[in-house]
Structure formats: C-alpha cells, structure tokens
Amino acid sequence: MLASYNLKMPHAVYGGVNAMDNITAIIKAAGAKKVAMFTDPGIEKTGLFALPEAAVKASGVEYYVLDDLKPEPDYMAVQKLIDDFKAQGADLIVACGGGSVMDAAKLASILVTDEYGVKELLDTPGRAKKCVPIVLIPTTAGTGAEVTPNAIVAVPEKQLKVGIVNENMIADYVILDARMIKNLPRKIAAATGVDALAHCIECYTSNKANPLSDTFALHGLDLIINNIIPACDDPEAMDAKNAMQIAAFYGGLAITASGTTGVHALSYPLGGKYHIAHGVSNAILLVPVMKFNEPVCRERFAQCYDRCAHDGSACKTVEEKSAWIISKLGEIVKHLEIPTSLKEFGVPEEDLEGLVQAGMQVTRLLVNNMREITPDDARNIYKQVM
Ligand SMILES: NC(=O)c1ccc[n+]([C@@H]2O[C@H](COP(=O)([O-])OP(=O)(O)OC[C@H]3O[C@@H](n4cnc5c(N)ncnc54)[C@H](O)[C@@H]3O)[C@@H](O)[C@H]2O)c1
Ligand SMILES: [Zn+2]
C-alpha cells in the first residue's frame, strides 16, 4: 500500500434519471453568459444531444455547438476544435459524449492560451491551468473520463495514444443521467463496459493501489461483473445500465486515486497505430495480462472473488478464487462477442517488434504493474493475441 495518496474530485456530481435538469442551476451558479457545447455526430444522430441542449436553452444563456470530432481523435484534430472554441469564446463548457468528446472538452478547458497547445502538453502536461469551468455528461459507461484528470489523444508520429494528465482537467460538474446510456448500441456498451472493467481490476492490482482507490475499484468491479451482461443484452435492463453508469464513474475515481497498469499500457499502440477502439484493445489484452500478473496479484484477485462472486460458486483456496476471477473476465469478453485476436484487425505478424517497442514506451502505466513487464514479456503477451 502507498504511504501517501490523494483523491481530487469534481465540485458536484448529479446522478439519476432527471439529473440533466440541474444544468440550469449550474449555469446560474457559474454566472455563465455564454456556453460552448461539445458533442460528436454519432451522439447527435441518436437524438440524445437534444436533452442537454434543451436544458442549456431553458437557462436562456447564449450558446453554440462544436461537434466536428471523430472518435479517438489525434492531437491535431483536438487542437483544431480547440482553435474554433478559442475563436468563439465561452465562460462555461458543457460536453456531452463518450471519452473522445469529454477528453477534447477537458483539453479545451485548460487551453485558452496562445502560449502552448495540445502538442506541447504531450511533453509538459503540468504547465496548463484551468481557464473555463466544465460540465461533463457521459454517454458511454464507460471511460470514467468524466471524473479523471486525464485526456487521451492519438499521436500518429509515435503510433501511440498518449495520456495527458493534469488535475486542472478534473470536471467542475458531472451529470450522470441514465437516459444518456439507455439505448447505447450493444457493441459500444460492450467495449466501453469492458474498458470500465479493466479500470477497476487494474487499479485494484496497481502498485499505486491505496484505500481510496480500492474502495471504488472493488465496488465498481462488483457492479460490473454482475451487471455488464444484462446491461448490454437487454434493452430494458435499466437497473443493470444504471449500475454500469455508476461503476464506470467509480472506475474513473479509482484511476484518479491510483492508476491503470499493463492492460492499458500495452493497448495504447493498438489504438494509436491500428485505430482499434479503446475498449476493444483493452478487452483483447485483459485476460493475457491478468494471467501474466496472476502469480503476484493472486491475493488481490482472491479478494475480488470474495467481493464479486454471488453465483453460488464455492471456491475455497486463494488459487481457486484467483482462477475464478480470471476465467470470469474471459467469459464476459467472450459472451459480449468482443474480438480477442488482432488478426481480425489485419495486424501482420511482422509488426510484433514495433508493437513491443511502442508498448514499452508507456512507462507512465507500466510502472504501476505489480509484476515487471520486460520487452520479452510484452512480446509474449502480444504473441498470444496475434
Ligand atoms: N480520460 C480518461 O480518463 C479516459 C479513460 C479511458 C479512455 N479514454 C479515452 O476515451 C476514448 C474512448 O471513449 P469511449 O469509449 O467513451 O467512446 P467514444 O467517445 O470514442 O465514442 C465511440 C462511438 O460511440 C458513439 N456513442 C457514444 N455514446 C453513444 C450513445 N449513448 N449512443 C450511441 N452512440 C454513442 C460516439 O458517437 C462514437 O461514434 C478514447 O480516446 C480513450 O483513449 C479516456
Ligand atoms: Zn480505459
């Protein structure tokens, strides 16, 4: 356990079915005169954006919409959006979307300056200060980006995704409105749900784990293991979807207090070079990395079993409990029909060395892995999924 730790959080979080109604009060409390709304075309197509837009409209404030953003954008695309934002100005940002939209908006909230941009923050993330307060409304469950100090962008020249971490990006207000995830398509619900699952189990088995992150990681894990399948399979399973929304938020809190490990580290090249969706690349690596970690994380996996196994299974030994958890992760990925091989994405065998080199650059997360991952270990793990 770490000797010292901390958890920085948003000013206020509003949850539940009609949580969106709080936007008017937030705009008033922030004294905002002009609001910039961030979203993306996929969300607009579903009609979901109408909800926060109506709430902003009802406040009577001037607003405009920035929606020219592809999923998992590179830093240049995010900078372009931020340049539009800087040209129009605003004194409050309201962002409604998945991790891609929320991360772009978080960067905008600290980049109202001509001194540096997203590119410069890749190397010196700490220099930026909060310029505009921000309201985050997640539509996936999810990245937990609504509560983390991180923003992830693709960096094509490194063939990687890179995390920019700066506590000034922690949201001022978060709105968890169940209507935003009610009709999440199964494929997106599955991939983003497994991302949240990875956040919880990685943070619980991280070198940076501590009592605060453990609380959220373990509770999030319990909720996800026992709700992800109905939440994805059954459009009417609102209790399960609500559980996923809060669990994804807990996963984000666990990241903020602790940090993800080998799965996320080795998955960044898969997103950066082959544009495999973040949740899918984590799903591909989840079981191989957890099996690799098992000898040093066995006790922690057994604690996960004690908290999460409600199916009448009667594992007794630490070894049995640990094996149950790892096999449960595999069952979830399989049931949700998420690809488990890079073949499906046309990754050729000769790219293996490039993957190893790129993965080993993600030292920010590799240092969190309880079992050291050497280049040989990374090669073995990637080989298993080629
Ligand atoms: N900041 C963080 O702490 C953090 C943590 C994990 C991941 N991430 C980053 O977040 C990004 C991924 O975010 P994501 O997984 O939420 O997906 P996303 O934001 O990339 O969205 C994926 C697709 O789903 C669509 N979509 C989103 N919500 C929908 C809904 N309710 N109904 C229908 N379609 C919907 C979007 O339009 C988009 O086409 C990646 O860049 C990843 O690296 C950030
Ligand atoms: Zn993630």
* Sequence of strands across the biggest β-sheet: 1-8-5-4-2-3
- Whole-number total of structural domains: 2
State the shape.
globular
Please name the CATH architecture of the largest domain.
Answer: Up-down Bundle
In the CATH hierarchy, the third-tier topology of the largest domain is known as Dehydroquinate synthase-like, alpha domain
- Please count the beta strands (DSSP E, at least 2 residues each): 8
In helices, the fraction of residues equals 40-55%
Helix count, DSSP H or I runs of 4 or more residues: 15
Which CATH class of the largest domain applies here?
Answer: Mainly Alpha
Major pleated sheet: 6 strands, parallel
Amount of beta strand: 5-15%
Cα gyration radius (Å): 20 Å
Listing every helix as H and every strand as E from the N terminus to the C terminus, the arrangement reads: EHEHHEHEHHEEEEHHHHHHHHH
Low-confidence stretches: none
Structural class: alpha/beta
Q: Compute the separation of the termini in Å.
A: 35 Å
Within CATH, the superfamily of the largest domain carries the name Dehydroquinate synthase-like - alpha domain
Q: Which molecules are bound in this entry?
A: nicotinamide-adenine-dinucleotide, zinc ion
Average residue-wise pLDDT = 96
How would you describe this structure to a colleague?
This protein is 53% helix and 11% strand. A six-stranded parallel β-sheet has the order 1-8-5-4-2-3, with helices on both faces. Strands 6-7 form a two-stranded antiparallel ribbon. With 386 residues, it is α/β, with parallel strands linked by helices. The chain has helices at 23-30, 41-46, 50-58, 75-88, 99-110, 118-123, 186-204, 211-233, 238-257, 262-274, 278-308, 318-335, 352-360, 363-366, 375-385, and strands spanning 12-15, 34-38, 62-66, 92-97, 134-138, 150-155, 160-165, 173-176. The chain contains 15 helices and eight strands. The structure holds nicotinamide-adenine-dinucleotide and zinc ion (ZN). Zinc ion binds next to helix 7 and helix 11.
